[in-house]
Amino acid sequence: MELKGITKRFPGVVANHDIDITVRRGIVHALVGENGAGKSTLMKILYGMQKPDEGTIAVDGEQVSFSNPGDAIVRGIGMVHQHFMLADNLTVLENVVLGSEKLYGIGTKARAKITEISDAYGLNVRPDVLVEDLGVADRQRVEILKVLYRGARTLILDEPTAVLVPQEVDALFDNLRELKAEGLTVIFISHKLGEVLSVADEITVIRRGTTVGTADPKTITTKQLAELMVGSELPSPETRESTVTDVPMLQVDGLKLTAPDQDGVERTVLDDIALTIHKGEVLGIAGVEGNGQAELVEAIMGMRAPDAGVLTLDGRDISRTPTRKRREDGIGYIPEDRHRHGLLLEAPLWENRILGHVTEKPNSKGALLDPAAARRDTERIVAEYDVRTPGIDVTAASLSGGNQQKLIVGREMSHQPKLLIAAHPTRGVDVGAQAQIWDQIREARREGLAVLLISADLDELIGLSDCLRVMFRGRLVADADPATITPEELGSAMTGASSGHLEHAAAGAVTGTARDTAVSDTASDTAGGED
Amino acid sequence: MKKFAKIDKDRLLLGIAAPVLAVVAALVVTALVLLATGKEPFKAFQIMVSYGFKSDSQVFILNEATTYYLAGLAVAIGFRMNLFNIGVDGQYRMGAFFGAVVGGMVTLPSFLEIPLIIVVSMVVAAAWSAIAGFLKVGRGVSEVIATIMLNSIATAVISYLLQPGRLAHLNSNTNSVYTTMLPKSAWFFTMTTNPAAGPIEGFIVIAVLAGVAYWFVLSRTRFGFDLRTVGQSESAAEASGVNVKKMIVTSMIISGALAGLVGMPALLNEAHTYSDEFPTGIGFIGIAVALLGRNHPVGIGIGALLWAFLDRTSNWLEFNGYDKEIVGVIQGVIVLCVVIAYEVVRRYGLGRQQRKVGEELAAAASLKTVEKAEVTA
After folding, report:
1. What is the overall mean pLDDT for chain A?
2. Domain architecture of chain A: domains with CATH
3. Which residues on B lie below 8 Å from A388 (Cβ)?
4. Quick check: A172 pLDDT over 90?
5. Among A486, A501, A460, CA closest to A239
6. Mean pLDDT over residues A71-95, rounded?
7. A-contacting residues in B 139-198 (Cβ below 8 Å)
8. Which of B229, B243, B353 sits opposite A395 (nearest CB)?
9. Res B70: pLDDT
10. How many whole angstroms separate alpha carbon A436 and alpha carbon A426?
């Protein structure tokens, strides 16, 4: 497969320009680049979801033009999306045949085909299980099977490891090697360099929307690859000196929350959570997404009413105070989903600067807004936090993700928070902005800020935190010292395999009920971390 | 600073583009409809314009637009919150009815009598609207369904009470029922500019004040900011500390209170009683007017005037041998076109702005690299 001179102009985000990629049959080809470099757009073009403005795509030497994913499937190209597209209330079999009933029907023939594919590539898929009963890794295998079932010979995997813990990543890579052995082609998109080096046969690097080079995974190091990707020296999330005091800023005690799930059954999502964050301390929470982190944040913010438990902020009980009062009292909030919780996308930047702090200076005087002061302060944030924008009257939607995030960080930091809740503060943010956001968190911590950090980026967690806790099925099951723990050990605890106090295996003493300390060497380094 | 001014001007242009586009499209469609019925379209438009600008027409249009404007504001408050208050219709009728009943029972000096009637009307209408708000918050009932039902209930309640022996009297000459006539002290002032054209109703002043208050509250107060926040993103509003449920009820109440003003020109300036001939259906016109005016206080004013103009000229068209229904077609087509044009222009504007920002940043970045290159060279 060959892509030549692909150019795509796209409002607001990095356009693809002059992309040249050649992918040979029967290999794993990795496409790497930082968030927002244009990888996903490129793959959407390849999969027929978007049309390129310029350039050509050739499959097996024959020039093709895809106007929808159906065309791509016909050419044997299939895509496994980052966000699974499965119907939870159907079985695996039903999900696989859905939309392709013509191929092998919906009965015995289809079942036989699914079993055949599953056995051939070692996918271990059980056709009659309900998808809602499957874990993330199993769902991903169903997605892969779905694509193979439709006759794909080339698989595009968009950030397949983002949702997996390290052990699951290894299993996925075994599957990919099986596929390769059978002569299939895999295009693997990632920004986790360790993974890329361990699985890929060829690497193409994308930077700012264009291909900047190819690399041989046998000779290149993660560091070299990262520099190729970023174009400069890498930042690291490491915090140097400790600023932890013994003054508690936030205390959470016996926090319990139940919420109805999709079927309306009440389930416990937070179970007896207790934690203390001191002034000048960053408490990191590790966990596979969906284990209660979002609910914990919302409970602390006052967006959900817990069933039991006491929250104390700076010595005052805030268990029953409304969200607005909590924010006025000094909780800063960098939400996980900035589009849903952090911004008004169609409002200008200066109105977004008011959002969440409408009762505070400089945004209002009494019951009246003070647009002039808010605008002046927005100008200041834009300058101080390096928000790249032509002005403060453009809508938030026209900024790139990183600049939106910088605006949010600037806004939250402008009200001298006592406690900052940072949920995935650098997700979807380019490397430059990432370093800046880390700096700001470190800076504020030095001035006595307490930070609750939730992140899926284990290097970020280990690098920034003074203290780590692991969350699993709504409970804080383990704690660890970020100075000694490795991402693999943390990853294993995230699957619920170990609990209690985690210690680095090399240190010898494995305490608590830690069972799984098998550390694999297939590093899961991300762009942010160095070996 | 020049750059910002430019972007603002663009936004203004885009803001005007939607309604203009809608009206033009509606005229084209109407012309086609007229042609299809075998009539000459431009003659019809000419008749409408020349008749619509006569001075008695102007007065009529202003008076009619006053009512439409208030209805438009009431609906627009809901729209800004992402609430569709279809119930303005029932709310204003309930308000005006009870305002008329209370006003008919007491005779006070004007400065007490008029505010009393207005306040009664606003409170009743707000309470009627609040039912829908509470149902939405407490039971998750869509305000659309609730307010439609409340409209029907309002109709039933009023026809039950508006009967001789209950709260109304029978006029044996015309066979119509009406509430006790309001005392003279409840008559609102009028302004006469041209005796031949008739008086302009004083309530237009209240309508203008309501428009100013609407603008001020929404764009200059904390409360207005919270309200708009909920309208743009409920999740972001909640995270920012707005009590969304409370805001839903509050805005339904405000929308209802404004609806309480809608029947006042007819009651205090015209009929001085609530009879079975009291104007109905204005709430629905309010929806069209709010859409046409894009929820902007000035825009709603223009929408109201346009609507009143069409109302006025439809009669004259009929007189000239055209079908009156044609104006109905224009009105319907305008609303449809507005909804479409608004969305088209909004998307175009957003995309355009994103592209512009992208371009400007790219230009700035390349400029920087050029500078850098020059420095290193």
Report:
1. 80
2. 2-230 (3.40.50.300), 242-330+416-531 (3.40.50.300), 340-415 (no CATH)
3. 361, 364
4. no
5. A460
6. 83
7. none
8. B353
9. 95
10. 10
